[in-house]
Task: structure prediction
Amino acid sequence: MTVESNMYEEVKPQSMSTCALGAAAVPVPEQLCIFGTGDLGRSLGLRLLQSGYRVVYGSRRPNSCGPLPEGAQVMSHAAAARSASLIFICVHREHYGFLQTMAPNLDGKVLVDLSNNLKKGVYPEANAAYLQSLVPGAAVVKGLNTLSAWALQNGLLAGKQVYLCGNSAEAKQAVAEMATKMGLTVLDRGSLSSARELEDFPLRLFQEWRLPLRVALGLIAFFFFYLLIRDVIYEAVEKGNDISFRIMISLANKVFPIVSLIMLSLCYLPGVIAAFLQLYRGTKYRRFPDWLDRWMLCRKQMGLVALGLAFLHAIYTFIIPIRYAVRHKLISRVVDEMKNNKTTPFDFDNTEAWGTDSFLVLGILGFFLYVLLGLTSLPSVGGTLSWREFSFIQSKLGHLTLFICTSHGYIYGWNKFLRPSTYKWYTPPGYMLCLIVPSVVLVLKFLVLLPCVDRTLTRIRQGWERNQPGEEMAMTKATNL
Amino acid sequence: MTVESNMYEEVKPQSMSTCALGAAAVPVPEQLCIFGTGDLGRSLGLRLLQSGYRVVYGSRRPNSCGPLPEGAQVMSHAAAARSASLIFICVHREHYGFLQTMAPNLDGKVLVDLSNNLKKGVYPEANAAYLQSLVPGAAVVKGLNTLSAWALQNGLLAGKQVYLCGNSAEAKQAVAEMATKMGLTVLDRGSLSSARELEDFPLRLFQEWRLPLRVALGLIAFFFFYLLIRDVIYEAVEKGNDISFRIMISLANKVFPIVSLIMLSLCYLPGVIAAFLQLYRGTKYRRFPDWLDRWMLCRKQMGLVALGLAFLHAIYTFIIPIRYAVRHKLISRVVDEMKNNKTTPFDFDNTEAWGTDSFLVLGILGFFLYVLLGLTSLPSVGGTLSWREFSFIQSKLGHLTLFICTSHGYIYGWNKFLRPSTYKWYTPPGYMLCLIVPSVVLVLKFLVLLPCVDRTLTRIRQGWERNQPGEEMAMTKATNL
Amino acid sequence: MTVESNMYEEVKPQSMSTCALGAAAVPVPEQLCIFGTGDLGRSLGLRLLQSGYRVVYGSRRPNSCGPLPEGAQVMSHAAAARSASLIFICVHREHYGFLQTMAPNLDGKVLVDLSNNLKKGVYPEANAAYLQSLVPGAAVVKGLNTLSAWALQNGLLAGKQVYLCGNSAEAKQAVAEMATKMGLTVLDRGSLSSARELEDFPLRLFQEWRLPLRVALGLIAFFFFYLLIRDVIYEAVEKGNDISFRIMISLANKVFPIVSLIMLSLCYLPGVIAAFLQLYRGTKYRRFPDWLDRWMLCRKQMGLVALGLAFLHAIYTFIIPIRYAVRHKLISRVVDEMKNNKTTPFDFDNTEAWGTDSFLVLGILGFFLYVLLGLTSLPSVGGTLSWREFSFIQSKLGHLTLFICTSHGYIYGWNKFLRPSTYKWYTPPGYMLCLIVPSVVLVLKFLVLLPCVDRTLTRIRQGWERNQPGEEMAMTKATNL
Result:
């Protein structure tokens, strides 16, 4: 009852001799039916016509359904259904009722449910399951619902991945062939019970970004209040100065790099944790705990959030000299010096020059590598890299970036570590706190790279096990790629 | 007469028993013919060989036609044509003449015309139509002409979209199958009368960028002369100062942000105009006026031009403190203050500090969001977003960006609105002019978001109509996706 | 013996009438076999199941081989091999031995070798050739080895290009069809002798980046030491000042733009060399020398390295005013002026203001165009451009960028060319050296654009030859696209 079999039915009953005449082999464009003449129906029809199909629309009022793509026919629902074996249902779920009344016409047909909902969990069952219950004699396939009318109209489909699910393998096969012809790549997600999952796809809202964004917001909030107390409130309480204007830029330009560095090290922490876990367990065949799995899956997003914050830090730094407060300080410093007529106020401090310049250079190089890492995480750039290139950039270059950015932090405080004035109200400054996690990650990574540890780890990752039940078992595992 | 039917002719006359022996089913690579041994012909042949076809070249002098891909044969045109059913014509249109003389050899063949012209409108009819008129017995298919020899050689075809047109459905089907096997996605553009359109594709030059670029250039020219008069000429006429050096940076750094903000608001203006038009008409089923349609189609390009100008504004701002004029002003101000021995010249103004810092921070955040918007308009990034994510970014984040950038503009003038010195020669300063359109867009957008308006608009967009002819009509429409 | 023929064998022996009943046409999902239950085997199996195949694993210990994708079967190697005609070998090469012992079970099967090595040149022959020698009765196909387990699991395959090679056309055809169904685009690389090349693909490490990076590093090293001697050591020797702190930023910020400009001009030099070579030879049909070919192939990478250096130059420039040394110099200059009580120290120099501002503006515009060029070289952006747009950007805009950046360099030295103090130790400053190559490229490009030269060159590129052996020969060539 699929498209396939239909074509066979048409072609095969004619005797073999027709084939030899070269006539039966002429491909008659297959006819597909679309119920619904809304935006999606119209765009889908246009695209199907462009892919070489004939299209017939089923409409309640075939004579007044607005402009349809050139070359398409319009009929009543029943007539349209009879003329094709594959029917696209481009109708809101609330109006599926009419399909029940015409169920006999749909027996043995493939119904493709493209509908989406506006919110999750409005209905007890998936739209496609509801459709199947209304028309038990048809083979319902859920799918293509991630395509928008806009993408269909503008031909943005080439190579795009779409999902299908349904209970009938033949029906899915027919829809998959049609989708392949439109330039889509099809993934089968199993039976109709996955329909709900497919219907939730277009409603996803940055799911894999949520954890990184929450971590970033939490860290930003913590460091903001911590630095607010240490810098602004301390100054107001202890010295009576109102420097609240610093919140806007000075404070933000401390919080952003701090959180960016921590987020970057959180990208590489799960990797070393996983390595130590495998070393401890002596096997790679036991699953990681769930929290580690989830953490590892959002490393890319963590890195991009860190890059965003580093970008903000860079711009905040560039505009420092334009600030009113900075220019005021510069001018008043000159005037003070002149008025007090100090004799050696302007001795050039070579160490200071080397220190601040190194600090700046490490920041620049770190930012440059940060941007490189970000560029290779663009899908179209990453896709052109070989596996070895990708792992070189994400692992070696990534750890180098972390190392440079951490050094940037250390040099910032190189001559402040031992000054008592640094520890206002006995609290360490923000940059000290932010260096803890990166330093730990770098030390652990260094340990993992030690030859003896590295050798064991490589063997484990190739399938070797420390506490294997029998010699043979290990053999089997070490065999597989 | 297609490739398909040819294969059938070869295979089928043998009795069914051969099939059962598993021998006839062995896929013999199909042979394709290419006329022309230039860059394109050679690259195409290489690629066809890589996709598993056999290739034969037709050449006027088969023995001296230069290096051809390994594995390809060369014959005379006539012999090559006889050996394949699908022939690629990789020859300049001016030399199609010889095809007429050998037309009998091409009867029943599929000819794929890949030619392009160097300019539009040189010839009265499309190359493919001319070819068809020369060889009426063949089935001409226009297509693949958007592929360059360079892309073919470097294997940059995967998932690329190509267009076909032709009068014979079978011929198009044969070419489409060949193209699909090369990894291309095929779109059928109908009969051979579309050939002209296809031949113009490779000659397009930033068609959808023209309107945005023209608007940007017009606005830049207007604001440049407006500010030239107000800033430079006013100073020269009224005070006799020559500050013409300011044209290079100070003036440009006013013009670019002004035009960028206006362009950004022009991205979002058609959306609110469309919403009010739908509210006024009470239906979504009447087409928008042409100018609105065209405007809406170039919103993305408008936004990117605005981003480019914002990027220039950012860099112009970063280099302000390095400028000779700025450093000179700073130094001379200090010296002036010292010489005149003012007593309270350097009082720190807290309000000024808050004001300028807020101004800078809004600019930074606006630019950051601007860049985010630009990144999501990269095809490979936008393609990974779900529909809801894309609309979240382009609509919510877009309007937030507009709001922040507009605030950036308002704060710039917070303490200048009421000073008479602001209105030189009774003209308002540039930043005031540039705030008009963004403010209007934001107010209109706010009105659209009011619950009562929003509710009506959502109903209209789901297909409801205020002045429907009959109850039933509305029902039909509201049904469709 | 391929999948194809197997299916035919199953279907065809039944009489034709079954087809007419529409039953035999029901697509029974084909069964594929995977040897090896490691990461790659599991990911591949999952993906094959999602693409609609049935999957059976061959394992030495079918009962204890860890978690496999839902829906897959596990059997002994021999049983699994018998149940499918296409077998994926996801096992390390070192363990291929067991395949020899079960060779009789593999007779007539298609074996897909997906293995990779960790290093190049470890084994005398390719893994696939070794496999073929162990199992002479099977048809070995090397391929899909560029897919990682990670990409397979995460569905990142759509439109990706993979390579196949093998001695049996049918076997390759069967694997190609399977790969196409998974959304991959297949390129045939010929016989099994290409297997080594395919096995080296995943081990490539920035091959096309090596030449540009080496050139860049060489130039950076040269200019670093040249400027170190001229700037820092000269100052120490001749004047006794220690300005070594300048190495970090001032020196780097001279080296980076110098090398960036040279690299940019090296992008466009091979193009003009090729043009002059064609003009000299009077034909486009003779191959360019090898060094020119290799140079032309890495132009894109050269441009991107140049962009990276320009990006560093921009950031280095932005942070100039924050530097300790710069602020110190500014302050001490003011104080000096005040103490010495000069009368006309702060006369504003209009020429100086115009000169430095023009210098900055040219730098900004050059950087802006540089970034534009870089953006269009992103695969996903470049892919959306028509051929004419791409060549407009890469040629016209590219040369404009080079022109603007070269002017940026010229204006930097506009008033230093004639000063004797510029030529320390009789050496020219770095910026003069770096202007040589770009100036030469621009002059040559200008010559090529002269109408008379351009006309000849266009004719040559359309196939015309100056010294053709006969009139006819030229005709033939001018014919081809």
Summary: The two ends of chain B are 41 Å apart (CA to CA). The mean pLDDT of chain B is 83. The longest strand of chain B covers residues 54-59. The first helix of chain B runs from residue 3 to 11.
